[in-house]
Design a protein that fits this description.
With 416 residues, this protein is α/β, with parallel strands linked by helices. The chain has helices at 36-39, 52-61, 78-96, 118-133, 167-189, 204-218, 237-250, 265-275, 285-305, 317-330, 349-357, 371-384, 386-389, 393-412, and strands spanning 65-70, 105-110, 194-196, 226-231, 255-260, 308-313, 339-344, 362-368. Bound molecules: flavin-adenine dinucleotide (FAD). Belongs to the proline oxidase family.
């Protein structure tokens, strides 16, 4: 199948191999079952029918892999950061255990907002923005990093010179960097790459600082362990991506990026308008689409040359098709592990299966964690992604087609 033929008909229910007699995902006696009792309270519903423990092998049978997304909320203080780190490490140990089929999990996913207090991320971001405004401004705690902000990055969130970090703040920053390094070290040991999520711009410079610190330490082999995230809805996205890629190449590091459009549009727009400045987001969705495809093209060239790795995280059919077509045109092998596609579990299944059928590597984001923690986490993500959670017009059209086909079958007794 050629990528241009994407996607196959949308399954209105899980495909046959994922279904039990009730039509819901089945709880088979797979390798993880022995662990079920112990882990039960620790696993989130992944698809409305099964739990994450069922989800991983079920995805594998369907030719897809899982990205484990530990469902932790933003941390306010050190204690919750330590608890969240333990949760991340437990998740990694589960992946490392012989009970999980080898290579069924393609990535772990981490939110820096869960392992560093938000207020500190805001302070560090402020200081990094001021350093961008005034390069003579000294940040004694800052180690060598790839470029974090570009000429076109908006700096309006830091209108005046921030106070330096206090000694306890510096200590907290060291502890938070150490948490990320501990997690990355364990992931590197078991060769499980990490995707670091992108958040809103008030904390993103600090998150990129964490990401690039970890990348300098762990991306020394051919394949990166640490992947940052670029949000194409930001007007400075391409410039920051190119700067970071150039810097990594200059230092002989491998680099990886997850490319998304961005989930915090209303938050960014409201903040900018409350300050009376232009929004950091592209003026219209067409510009965001163009930026996404442009960043994807740039990274595909890096995949081809071998220095970069790319996860295209999107539900957008046109972007999926364009990237798959460009990869084919460049001659990037579909089994090349430096190119991956990803969608959220239960969303855009037509695109996921179409890409998989075309031979590409596709993973689904699978929420993971204690149920009492993951439910609020999912509700918050749902709130942030209201637009995204309403089915795309393409998915709606496929659903309509399938309903029409079934009604005809019911009335006329045969399928068309
Ligand atoms: C696997 C995966 C991982 C993700 N990780 C992250 C992450 O780490 N950080 C994060 O922020 N998001 C993340 N997201 C969410 C992502 O950023 C998008 O919100 C979501 O995927 C919708 O975009 P789309 O490419 O799928 O498709 P589409 O539905 O085509 O795009 C919708 C997106 O376009 C943008 N947009 C809409 N209207 C306008 C407008 N008027 N002007 C400019 N832009 C506009 C918005 O970003 C909106 O979300 C992730 C998504 C997936 C699938």
């Amino acid at each position: 199948m050629r990528p241009h033929d994407l996607p196959p008909p949308l399954p209105l229910h899980p495909p046959r191999h994922l279904r039990g007699p009730s039509g819901r995902c089945r709880h088979q006696g797979h390798a993880l079952q022995g662990r079920r009792r112990r882990e039960e309270r620790h696993l989130a519903c992944s698809d409305g029918g099964g739990a994450a423990e069922d989800g991983v092998p079920a995805l594998l049978r369907g030719g897809l892999k899982a990205i484990l997304d530990y469902g932790s909320e933003d941390a306010e203080e050190d204690d919750s950061c330590d608890r969240n780190l333990k949760g991340f490490l437990d998740m990694v140990e589960m992946v490392a255990s012989p009970a999980v089929p080898e290579s069924s999990v393609s990535f772990a996913c981490v939110k820096v907002t869960a392992i560093c207090p938000i207020a500190l991320l805001e302070r560090v971001s402020d200081l990094l923005r001021w350093e961008k405004k005034d390069p003579s401004f000294r940040l004694p705690w800052k180690s060598h990093s790839m470029p974090l902000l570009s000429q076109s990055s908006p700096l309006y969130q830091t209108p005046s010179m921030p106070n330096p970090l206090t000694a306890p703040e510096e200590q907290d920053l060291r502890s938070a960097l150490h948490r990320l390094s501990t997690l990355c070290k364990r992931c590197a040991e078991i060769n499980l790459p990490i995707l670091i999520d992108a958040e809103y711009t008030s904390v993103q410079p600090a998150i990129d600082y964490f990401t690039y610190s970890a990348a300098s330490e762990f991306n020394r082999g051919d394949d990166p362990i640490i992947f940052g995230t670029i949000q194409a809805y930001l007007r400075d996205a391409k410039e920051r991506l190119v700067q970071a890629a150039d810097a990594a190449e200059g230092e002989g590091l491998s680099f990886g990026f997850k490319l998304v459009r961005g989930a915090y549009m209303s938050r960014e727009t409201e903040l900018a308008s409350s300050l009376g400045v232009a929004s950091p987001i592209h003026r219209c969705i067409q510009d965001t689409h163009a930026c996404y495809d442009d960043c994807a093209s740039f990274m595909l060239e890096k995949v081809l040359s071998g220095s970069g790795s790319l996860v295209l995280a999107t539900h957008n059919l046109e972007s999926g098709k364009a990237a798959a077509g460009k990869a084919e045109e460049l001659g990037i092998g579909k089994r090349n592990r430096k190119l991956q596609f990803s969608q959220l579990m239960g969303m855009a299944d037509g695109l996921s299966l179409g890409l998989r059928n075309a031979g590409f590597q596709v993973s689904k984001y699978l929420p993971f964690g204690p149920v009492d923690q993951v439910i609020p986490y999912l509700l918050r993500r749902a709130e942030e992604n209201r637009g995204l959670l309403s089915a795309s017009s393409h998915d709606k059209e496929l659903i309509r087609k399938e309903l029409r086909r079934r009604m005809k079958t019911a009335v006329l007794g045969r399928a068309y």
